[in-house]
Amino acid sequence: MTREHTTVAVRPATAADAPTMARLHADGISEGFLPSLGPAFLTRLYRRILRTPHAFAFVAGDADAVVGFVAGANDIAALYRSFLIRDGVPAAMSAAPRIVRSLPRVIETLRYPSRPDLPGLPDAEILAVAVARQFHGQGHGRALVDTAVREFERRGVSAIKVVAAADNPAAQALYRSAGFVDEHELRVHAEVASIAYVRPARTGVGA
Ligand SMILES: CC(C)(COP(=O)(O)OP(=O)(O)OC[C@H]1O[C@@H](n2cnc3c(N)ncnc32)[C@H](O)[C@@H]1OP(=O)(O)O)[C@@H](O)C(=O)NCCC(=O)NCCS
């Protein structure tokens, strides 16, 4: 089906966008345990993503109304290390009882990028993309993912992965439409089937 996409404005996220990104994440992405750690934890994570050279984020909309975001990391292990070293204690304090409840899932998530049963997947990863429900189906998701792909290319990354729950047809359609192909079925958490998608990138574009 050919759809008419409205013009979508996408810009780099700033620290002021972090609470909105946290809210869009919590509202839109029920899979995974991150939303259960609370808005303060998610806001801190997105602030770190915006500060570290290992990651980036873009938002769709304007300064008054951000309607979606995408976050990516060219080196996810380095991002997690930087988050743990610089934000670990305050982040843990902001979500302490919830982290204790979710500890096995926290560990599964931190471990999964280096799991030996997942060989050959690129380091670079789209971490999250979400659009406010009332703006779905207007091309925001695709514009955000295309912008993230261009940013990875600018950073010299040669391939990008993204992991989506197997029962999330909107995410699957979005990633396939943006040139990602199904690569690998995996379980980051034992009870949830996920699919890793991979897309080659043209290195050095826009550098
Ligand atoms: C996934 C999500 C970001 C898509 O955003 P969106 O702005 O509605 O997507 P777009 O309008 O840009 O559509 C992109 C493509 O996906 C397709 N698509 C979007 N939603 C779809 C759905 N529910 N079912 C089937 N296809 C869908 C569109 O038809 C379009 O394909 P095309 O480019 O070939 O025409 C949005 O549904 C969302 O925020 N979901 C909750 C958060 C989430 O699950 N994020 C992914 C996991 S991190």
Enumerate the strands of the largest sheet in spatial order, edge to edge or round the barrel. 1-2-3-4-5-7-6
Average pLDDT, all residues: 84
Series of H and E elements: EHHEEHHEHEHEE
For the biggest sheet, the summary is: 7 strands, mixed
- Overall radius of gyration: 16 Å
Strand coverage percent: 15-25%
Which architecture does the CATH hierarchy give at level 2?
3-Layer(aba) Sandwich
> Total number of β-strand segments?
7
Shape: globular
What CATH first level would be assigned? Alpha Beta
CATH topology: Aminopeptidase
| Ends distance | 34 Å
| Ligand identities | coenzyme A
- Could you say how many structural domains there are in total? 1
Descriptors:
single chain, 207 residues, alpha+beta, Aminopeptidase, 7 strands, 40% helix, 22% strand, binds coenzyme A
